[in-house]
């Protein structure tokens, strides 16, 4: 069967290369998934073939293509505002998708190992076994599923189908509606409760009592199956125990999916770009390490994420058996999406809906504007890196060569005048200095443009997730309004409505705390980032000045 | 009649503009000479039309084109080595060419005034009147002309025709053969004698007893004919009298031609490039001023040129009547080309031909190599200027805009956290700083790349003239050998040969002195140039550092 994929994002291929431009929604015939480095090869409707990033497309079933309903564009804010239905998928869907993607090498582009620890055959059956979610004791997951499937005709979540209706997500679900409607009967132990408190800036997540950090260090190439398969492992060392754990990209990827399905009111920092640029493997691996460090730093500084069980398990587990047990437990987590709010303890005070609306609208405007400017900084960093390593370097070298050749030409006529020799040597050294400055331009991006780009890769991810967060909150508010209408029509008890109102407030408190957390984080973080960037730029231009001053001294008698 | 021109040099048109590439030797049909700024419009044999620099072509007569003999390529050293015959033209030819070029606006590209002080009609008749050279008292110019025309079948000067045989130079001539053969009977007054002496570095021109300098200042737009015609006048002030004279480009051009026909063993510094680049009239005019200053400086520092009568007249004459008288006198100068050597007083010692050959060969090699590297530095300066004012500026501005927009986006969400305001303002200022650095890149070439380019424009001209200088010397040496053969065949008296040998030595002394002068000049001059250039570069990068440091301080609390 000829596999088909659909573009989720626009991608502009580099002209003159094997890359091919694709447009969101475009259907392509898949020709080769074994290209490596995150690239797939395909053919478009015009018959052109070329490479595109695997991450920019999704596989589709033939029916999707025929009925033309498989056009889930990349979630953008505007769309999310209309189709604000819950867009994350449940753990069950996800495993299914993971199993499928393991087959087609989805995470193959990061290392050579497409297999699990156990091997491809076992892996598949292992995951297939997990696909139907085993309910935890005390969690009426079947009730929940029933409830939701009964509810598919209501406004709430009715648009989910347009976004996730494909073979990987056959049934639409809204995580957490059971919480809102009070049908979720889970007791959260005190140790797992998360507090939202009020400080001078508004409602905030209760600060981390014992802050810690985690270093992502020296990626190592490891291999298994007697060296047939090799992969990169990153060494993580948390400051609270100083015990190093080794994690591969697929572990990060698995963690990221768990976090995304669990925390729908908290933007999860992005993993490294799959289409990262770099000329050597070592540079690629180092850039990914830096971006993983950014991911880890953001996680550590977040009061909710930093204490989440799946994250702690990821950071600390060193035993393979315990790893698998923890993995299964995380995949069975019942408190996903809005259901997670049952863990929250918020101030008593009821929130004014108009105030909440005002803040979310302001946030919406802000995020829209940030999205553009964060992408523009990110693109600019990429462009500057290319400029420094390309034309800037080349220009300096041309200047250097012109001077060097001048020195050479002048030295052809030496001998009678003593001072000429000193001069020609100085001119040749000037040539050498500019060639060296060219090399400095080549090296420089790793000190300024690339780290800045890595930071803005993080912000691009956070800012890009915010529309979903706002959409999820908006969904809850609309559900609340629906309940208010039902009560007005005497179809819902006032007591039940009050419960819904209270729980909607909990959801709003969570959003407000997250908005404030993002604000506080970025204020400190962007300041430090800009300072670091400017210091590196200053160092660079000072080095040029030093180089030229040393060169100038060569002309002294 | 359709005028035709032939390309003297290769010119590569800027792609995407109205410019057209032309190849040396190519014949083009002239369509329009009224384009201005030194450009003409033409059509090539493929039927393509476009603009090219007027200075890169010469007009040809229809016969030339038909017989295909009008292919005088730009003189290069290799060719000059073979066709070493005297390539300058006499004053008579020159006036003829000047008159013709006045008609077609040859020097029209420098100012709007194609007319002389008197007006077009008088100018033409005035110059036509001068075309037949009036012999000076005591100068047997008719004998000289007769001698030369009798000699056209000899080796000496036989290749001249391929270089200058066009309607502007109907008869071939070798300036100065009469000197070599002892038929020039001129008494040079002691005050006009030029001495060559021996110092530790070899034979040199006797140094200038009272060095002076001349400033070329503040070009002014002047006009005549009640403002219909306007032109640029440069103000020259010699240090020896402090009396300012006003000179237009056509005066410089006239001076340059006089110098070139008189001093065939001394490279004459070039006038400003006609195809100088610049976006505004003011910039163009200023670049020309700087290049004129380079010309003037070189003249002042040259022991022979600085004291020449025509130059002194150019520098000091303030009276229109005296100006015309001096002009006529210069145009009637008998001591042109090798004949000028009758003014020289050289050491008694006879020169070893093998030593002279060694030095000229070394000079030949050196000049060949210098020609390439001087052109390459010159092109590099032009390229760097374009890079600084184009992509470097634009890149900085893009960086600036990305930061500025980021600051703007962040400021949308201000109000509750006080420190944000300080941060967004700092980020906006960072954006502003990079936009300002972009402007600095735009401004910078006038402090480093353009002056460096102007200096190397001078060297390009000097180095480019050296092949002719060497060729002129070589011609004299060959003539000497011819005389030696004639003597061996008893067709020439030994006493007459000894006179020829002595005079050939005078010519060789002049060449050696000039080679040494150029060496000494460039050693000092290139050193100062490089130092000045590097200081400007250092200042520039220091300014960037300063700008960034000030910006960094904005982030402090």
Structure write-up:
Chains A, B: Its main location: membrane. Chains A, B: Belongs to the sorting nexin family. Chains A, B: Keywords: Cytoplasmic vesicle, Membrane, SH3 domain. Chains A, B: It is found in: Cytoplasmic vesicle membrane. Chains A, B: This is Sorting nexin. 2 copies of one chain form a homodimer. Chain A is an alpha+beta fold and 557 residues long. Among the domains of chain A are: 1-74, SH3 type barrels (Roll), CATH 2.30.30.40; 349-557, Up-down Bundle (Substrate Binding Domain Of Dnak, Chain:A, Domain 2), CATH 1.20.1270.60. The first copy, chain A, contains 15 helices and 11 strands. Chain A has a 5-stranded antiparallel sheet with strand order 4-3-2-1-5. In chain A, strands 7-6-11 form a 3-stranded mixed sheet, covered by helices on one side. In chain A, a hairpin with a 4-residue loop joins strand 8 and strand 9 (229-238). In chain A, helix 3 (91-104) packs antiparallel against helix 4 and helix 9 crosses helix 14 (449-488). The longest helix of chain A is centred in the C-terminal third of the chain and has 60 residues, at 494-553. Chain A is elongated. The N and C termini of chain A lie far apart (79 Å). Mean pLDDT of chain A is 78; it is low at 65-174. At the A-B interface, helix 12, helix 13 and helix 15 of A face helix 12, helix 13 and helix 15 of B.
Task: List the defining traits of the structure above.
53% helix; SH3 domain (chains A, B); 557 residues; alpha+beta; SH3 type barrels; SH3_domain (chains A, B); SH3-like_dom_sf (chains A, B); PX_dom_sf (chains A, B); homodimer; Substrate Binding Domain Of Dnak, Chain:A, Domain 2; elongated; 3-stranded mixed beta sheet
């Amino acid at each position: 069967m000829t596999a088909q994929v659909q573009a989720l994002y626009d991608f502009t291929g580099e002209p003159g290369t094997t890359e091919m431009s694709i447009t969101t929604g475009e259907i392509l015939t898949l020709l080769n998934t074994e290209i490596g480095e995150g690239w797939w090869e395909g053919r478009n409707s015009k018959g052109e073939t070329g490479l595109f990033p695997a991450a920019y497309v999704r596989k589709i079933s033939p029916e999707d293509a025929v009925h033309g309903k498989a056009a889930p564009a990349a979630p953008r804010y505007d769309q999310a505002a209309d189709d604000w239905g819950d867009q994350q998928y449940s753990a069950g869907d996800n495993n299914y998708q993971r199993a499928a993607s393991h087959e087609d090498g989805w995470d193959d582009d990061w290392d050579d190992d497409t297999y699990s620890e156990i091997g491809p055959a076992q892996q598949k059956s292992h995951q297939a076994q997990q696909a139907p979610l085993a309910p935890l004791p005390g969690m009426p997951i079947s009730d929940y599923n029933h409830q939701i499937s009964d509810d598919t005709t209501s406004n709430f979540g009715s648009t989910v189908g347009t976004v996730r209706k494909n073979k990987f997500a056959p049934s639409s679900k809204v995580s957490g509606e059971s919480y809102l409607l009070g049908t979720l009967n889970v007791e959260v132990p005190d140790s797992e409760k998360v507090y939202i408190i009020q400080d001078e800036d508004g409602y905030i997540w209760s600060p981390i009592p014992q802050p810690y950090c985690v270093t992502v260090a020296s990626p190592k190439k490891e291999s298994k199956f007697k060296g047939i398969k090799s992969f990169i492992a990153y060494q993580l060392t948390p400051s609270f125990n100083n015990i190093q754990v080794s994690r591969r990209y697929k572990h990060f990827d698995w963690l990221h999916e768990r976090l995304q399905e669990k925390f729908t009111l908290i933007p999860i920092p992005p993993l490294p770009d799959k289409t990262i640029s770099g000329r050597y493997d070592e540079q690629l691996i180092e850039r990914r390490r830096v971006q993983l460090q950014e991911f880890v730093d953001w996680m550590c500084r977040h009061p909710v994420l930093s204490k989440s069980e799946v994250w702690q398990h990821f950071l600390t587990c060193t035993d393979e058996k315990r790893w698998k047990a923890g993995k299964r437990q995380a995949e069975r987590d019942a408190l996903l999406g809005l259901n997670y709010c049952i863990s929250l303890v918020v101030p008593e005070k009821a929130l004014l809906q108009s105030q909440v609306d005002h803040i979310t609208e302001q946030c919406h405007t802000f995020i829209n504007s940030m999205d553009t400017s964060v992408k523009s900084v990110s693109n600019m960093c990429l462009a500057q890196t290319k400029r420094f390593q390309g034309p800037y370097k080349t220009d300096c070298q041309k200047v250097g060569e012109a001077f060097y050749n001048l020195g050479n030409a002048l030295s052809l006529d030496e001998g009678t005048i003593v001072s000429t020799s000193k001069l020609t040597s100085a001119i040749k050294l000037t040539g050498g200095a500019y060639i060296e400055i060219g090399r400095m331009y080549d090296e420089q991006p790793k000190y300024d443009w690339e780290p800045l780009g890595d930071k803005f890769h993080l912000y691009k991810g956070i800012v890009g997730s915010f529309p979903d967060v706002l959409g999820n909150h908006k969904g809850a508010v609309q559900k609340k309004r629906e309940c208010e209408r039902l009560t007005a029509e005497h179809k819902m008890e006032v007591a039940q409505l009050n419960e819904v109102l209270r729980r909607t407030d909990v959801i709003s408190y969570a959003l407000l705390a997250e908005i404030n957390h993002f604000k506080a984080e970025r204020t400190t973080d962007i300041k430090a980032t800009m300072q670091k960037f400017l210091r590196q730029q200053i160092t660079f231009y000072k080095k040029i000045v030093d180089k030229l001053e040393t060169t100038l001294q060569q002309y002294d008698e």
